[in-house]
Each structure stands twice: as structure tokens, then as C-alpha cells.
Amino acid sequence: MSHMAPFKKKRVLFLGRLDTDTCFETCLRYVKKIKADLIIAGDGPLRKLVPDNAIFLGWIKNVQKAIKESDIVFTTGYLGMLKTYIQRKPILIGWTNPVKEDSLKMHPMYEKNTDECFRWAKKQTWQKLADMYEKLWQK
Predict the structure, then answer these.
(1) What are the residue boundaries of the structural domains of the chain, listed by start?
(2) Model pLDDT, residue 6
(3) For the domain 11-138, what is the CATH code?
(4) Per-residue pLDDT tens for 50-75?
(5) Which of 35, 37, 46, 74 would give a disulfide with 18, using CB separation of 3.0 to 4.6 Å?
(6) Which residues of the chain form beta strands (DSSP E)?
(7) pTM value?
(8) Over the stretch 94-132, which tens digit does the pLDDT of each residue have?
(9) In the sheet where 91-92 sits, what is the strand order?
(10) What is the C-alpha separation between 33 and 44, in angstroms, rounded?
């Protein structure tokens, strides 16, 4: 008879402002559905919805450590996504309006695997980011 290791609950990190436009409520539903532990790095108007069993960090300086200690990251911010790609962690995203949907779906790493995202993130610079935004606003 083989012995299996005990099931380890996934740790989902919500990274960002606790608000409707960052899909915080969507993250809460997802975490409940998969019965994961929730870590929150951020704050905002929906703080009252934070479950009692969540680990609430608030705004933190060392985001990389929180990402490293999680299994999945839920974030909709560009820099949060970039920092998560560097750590080779899967990202969950959401949107509440067509503009945010377009900006996320137009992201070069939308629906890519973690290795592709890591390689892409390692090549990013502040100049490339500025150029990308300038190009976006010219359309």
C-alpha cells in the first residue's frame, strides 16, 4: 500500500487595492470555491469583506516575499503581474469593464505559461514600459 502526502491547501495572494475594479470580490469567491488560504497584501474600501480566516498584511514593502510564499497570485496591476512573473507564479486576473478587459487581454503574456512569462519579465525595463504606454495612448 502506498502512502500519499497529506493534501496541502493552496495559498492565494491577493495583491492590490481592495475594491470592485480590482475584482477583490471575484478573488474571494474563487478562494472559497477551491478552499484555499487567502493572504492579502493591500487595503481599500472593501476591507470589511476580508474573511476572518484570511492573513491580512495590508500595504507591504516586500511584495516579493509575499509572492514567494504563495501558490497563486490574484492581481490586476501591471507591476504586480511583472513581480509575479519574475517569481514564476501563476496569476489570476479579472476585470469589471471593457477597458480593463482590453488592457489585460492585450498584455503580451495573456494566457501564456509561467516559463514564457518569466523570460518576458526578465527583459522588461522602465523605458519599455514608458514606450508601451505612449504607443497605447497614440491609438
Answers:
(1) 11-138
(2) 58
(3) 3.40.50.2000
(4) 999 999 999 999 999 999 999 999 99
(5) 46
(6) 11-15, 37-41, 55-56, 72-74, 91-92
(7) 0.82
(8) 888 888 888 888 888 888 888 888 888 888 888 987 887
(9) 55-56, 37-41, 11-15, 72-74, 91-92
(10) 23
Residue 67, Cα to own-chain centre: how many angstroms?
Answer: 9
Element (H, E) at 130: helix 126-138
For residue 91, the cross-strand partners are: 73
Cell of 133: 504606454
β-sheet bridge partners, residue 38: 12
Report the alpha-carbon distance of residue 136 to residue 9 in Å, rounded. 40
- 10 half-sphere exposure, CB direction, 13 A CA radius: 16
* Cβ–Cβ under 8 Å, residues 65 and 75: no
For the record, the C-alpha cell of 119 comes out as 523570460
Predicted confidence band at 1 (pLDDT cuts at 50, 70, 90)? very low
Chain length of the chain: 139
